[in-house]
Amino acid sequence: MTEETANWNSAASDPEPRAEGGEQEGAGDVAGMTFEQALGELERIVQELERGQLDLDAAIKAYERGSQLKAHCTAKLREAQLRVERISLASDGKAEALPVDLD
Q: What is the pTM of this model?
């Protein structure tokens, strides 16, 4: 395990015990991340996986963490999209909600 992997792995550990059937480990700290923080960590995880130097268990944990981070980034982008949509102005200066093409 490299130092980078140890860093994200320790960030994913939760110091408080969870009740059975609770949310996935590390999901709580992902929810508090900014888009930039989550994207940076996701990029580091992808690099680790691409190097192919993780053992199977570490690779699976990295993939799971990456999935959480990807979902968080997607949600943050959608929130930003909705905020921009709400503040668009028409050519006459009046506020107007303009739909944004998601494709």
A: 0.61
